[in-house]
Amino acid sequence: MDNRLYEYSPIVSRPKLAWPNGARVAFYVGLNVEHYEVDKPSTSIFPGTAGLAPDPLNFGWRDYALRIGIWRLIESLDRYGLRASVLLNSDCCERYPQVIQAGKERGWAWLAHGKNNSILQAGMTVEEERQYLTNVVDTIREATGQSVKGWLGPALTETFETPGILKEIGLSYLLDWCSDDQPFPLSIPGMLSVPYSIELNDVTMFVGKSLTGEQFYQMVVDQFDQLYADSAQSGRVMALCLHPFIINQPFRHKYLDKALEYIANHEGVWLTTSDEIAAHYAENYNQ
């Protein structure tokens, strides 16, 4: 079947996209703040034990994220004046209140990212999914004190009904469809797709391809340089997608810090959040 969620739109046929204050590239950090159930398999560095319950090797590796890694990341974000766009599992609101408080103090944007990263919506009925998504969004809204506008599915998963349900409960954009360098409208009125990244993503780069920190830095720079060059014609979005149990390991962290410095020190870069990108596009281009 054809994908009815959005239509084909070649970038060369679109009106010029302009960002605030003449910026060429809108840059945001997609920070995954996630909870994993101890008796279910998930993202693993060693598949050999992934099916065990418990699985200390892989669970402990993931658990490093909010115990250690995120606090190292926060130091870098603060250093370069960056606010995170948080892909938040709602289970984190009760279990990691210190992380939520740190984000509230810094004006982070909060996006719904499912209940936890051990549950996917596949197989849910429409009513089950509606109740599930409503509970996720309500929990995040109550904990953060902010409206929830964006969604990223755990492992970038959806059902065919997800976008419509999210619109019903007050959301206005998705990150799941990584098919563009600019926001674009979905077929559901009032819903947008905002760029995220499968490849410029530390899970893919380090777990999937075993790249080095130096290679990570070079790929971030190369991504930015190409998008910056492209943006001479029309504005672009660059998302840097991070998981603190991966990129903020001690031997990798300095390469992230170096990459953030490279981007933040360029002129013509809007250091922003996915919420602000979606709002700017909706106000000026999605009439």
Could you please describe the fold and organization of this structure?
The protein is α/β, with parallel strands linked by helices and 287 residues long. 40% of the residues lie in helices and 13% in strands. It has nine helices and nine strands. Helix 7 runs parallel beside helix 8. The model has no long low-confidence stretch (mean pLDDT 97).
From the structure above, extract its key features:
alpha/beta, four-stranded mixed beta sheet, 40% helix, 13% strand, globular, TIM Barrel, 287 residues, five-stranded parallel beta sheet, 9 helices
List the helices and strands and how they pair.
Elements: E1 25-33, H1 56-79, E2 84-88, H2 91-95, H3 97-106, E3 109-112, H4 126-144, E4 150-151, H5 162-168, E5 173-174, E6 184-185, E7 192-193, H6 202-208, H7 213-230, E8 236-242, H8 250-264, E9 269-271, H9 274-284
Parallel strand pairs: 1-2, 1-8, 1-9, 2-3, 4-5, 5-7
Antiparallel strand pairs: 6-7
Helix pairs in contact: 1-8, 7-8
What is the level-2 CATH architecture name?
A: Alpha-Beta Barrel
Q: Going by CATH, what is the homologous superfamily?
A: Glycoside hydrolase/deacetylase
What order do the SSEs take from the amino end to the carboxyl end, as H and E?
A: EHEHHEHEHEEEHHEHEH
- Write down the overall geometry: globular
Catalogue the unreliable spans.
none
Using only CA atoms, what is the Rg? Answer: 18 Å
In short:
This protein is an alpha/beta fold and 287 residues long. It contains nine helices and nine strands.
